[in-house]
């Protein structure tokens, strides 16, 4: 993630986790970037990423997805993996980041 | 043929089963053609099964030099391989879980919907702020929104 910040991209993680749960995760994994809480899936719904009932307690959660948004607020790259096992490689994101002004 | 011979087919079958499992997550998952239906891995499991069958026949043949050991190997390795195959089917077909289509998620070129959410300290943060507040003294070129399932 520091690689992203080095090229001027701010990583922001969003999930239904509470601020406490995110703090816990960051502490254990050593993450230092921004984590946002969307407990009612309001933003998740607006981005059409709701995975209904897929949470451990049957709650709605977000399906994995990444969006690179430029300084004008325009989406420039999307990763909506169809397979749960595939994650975007950091190199892909860095390549796109280079094209942003 | 005397029974001193090392039962290579059974070990090869077991090894190939392990490779068939691991290669999906390490190699084939990166290519849509082998990811969406894991035919390459099923093929590898098929070859492994054939090797195991040959190996089991050999293990239980009457002319083995150490019949008891051969039978143990001939029972344990195929069982483990079947377990590996079962776990593969479970993880790829069941855990991979059909994800929602998300057709209305923003596409490249569209504006990202604005929002305000609480950060891990409970402080309200907006997307606009995230796009403009500096990182190491510099204005960011962009923000990478990473939606994830959650801690669990």
Features:
A: alpha+beta; Glutaredoxin; 4 helices; 6 strands; 30% helix; B: 152 residues; 2 domains; 5 helices
Give the arrangement of secondary structure elements.
The complex is a heterodimer of chains A (101) and B (152).
Chain A: H1 2-6, E1 9-15, H2 19-29, E2 34-37, H3 42-46, E3 50-51, E4 61-62, E5 65-70, E6 75-79, H4 90-98
Parallel strand pairs in A: 1-2
Antiparallel strand pairs in A: 3-4, 5-6
Chain B: H1 8-26, H2 32-35, H3 39-59, H4 67-95, E1 116-119, E2 124-126, H5 127-132, E3 142-147
Antiparallel strand pairs in B: 1-2
Could you explain how this protein is built, in words?
The complex is a heterodimer of chains A (101) and B (152). Chain A is an alpha+beta fold. Chain A has one domain (2-98): Glutaredoxin (3-Layer(aba) Sandwich). Helix content of chain A is 30%, strand content 26%. Chain A is globular. Chain A starts with a helix and ends with a helix. The mean pLDDT of chain A is 87. With 152 residues, chain B is mainly alpha-helical. Chain B folds into two domains: 8-95; 111-144, no CATH class. Chain B has five helices and three strands, in the order ααααββαβ. Chain B has a two-stranded antiparallel ribbon with strand order 1-2. In chain B, strand 1 (116-119) and strand 2 (124-126) form a beta hairpin. The chains are: A alpha+beta (101), B mainly alpha (152). Chains A and B meet through strand 1, helix 2, strand 2, helix 3 and strand 3 of A and strand 1, helix 5 and strand 3 of B.
């Amino acid at each position: 993630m520091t690689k992203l910040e080095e090229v001027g991209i701010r990583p922001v993680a969003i999930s239904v986790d509470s601020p406490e749960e995110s703090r816990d995760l960051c502490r254990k994994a050593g993450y230092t970037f921004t984590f946002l809480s969307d407990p009612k899936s309001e933003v998740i719904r607006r981005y059409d990423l709701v995975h209904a009932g897929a949470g451990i307690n049957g709650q709605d959660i977000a399906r994995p997805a990444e969006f690179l948004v430029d300084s004008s607020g325009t989406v420039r790259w999307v990763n909506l993996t169809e397979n749960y096992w595939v994650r975007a490689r950091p190199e892909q994101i860095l390549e796109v980041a280079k094209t942003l002004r | 043929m005397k029974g001193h011979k090392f039962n290579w087919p059974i070990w090869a079958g077991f090894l190939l089963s392990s490779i068939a499992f691991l290669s999906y997550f390490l190699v084939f998952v990166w290519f849509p053609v082998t990811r969406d239906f894991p035919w390459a891995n099923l093929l590898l499991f098929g070859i492994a099964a054939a090797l195991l069958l040959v190996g089991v026949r050999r293990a239980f043949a009457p002319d083995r030099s150490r019949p008891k050991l051969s039978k143990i190997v001939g029972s344990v390795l195929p069982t483990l391989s079947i377990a590996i195959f079962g776990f593969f089917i479970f993880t790829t077909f069941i855990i991979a879980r059909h994800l929602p289509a998300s057709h209305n998620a923003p596409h490249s070129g569209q504006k990202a919907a604005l929002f305000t959410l609480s950060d891990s300290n409970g402080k309200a943060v907006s997307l606009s702020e995230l796009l403009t507040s500096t990182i190491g003294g510099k204005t960011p070129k962009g923000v990478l929104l990473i939606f994830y399932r959650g801690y669990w």
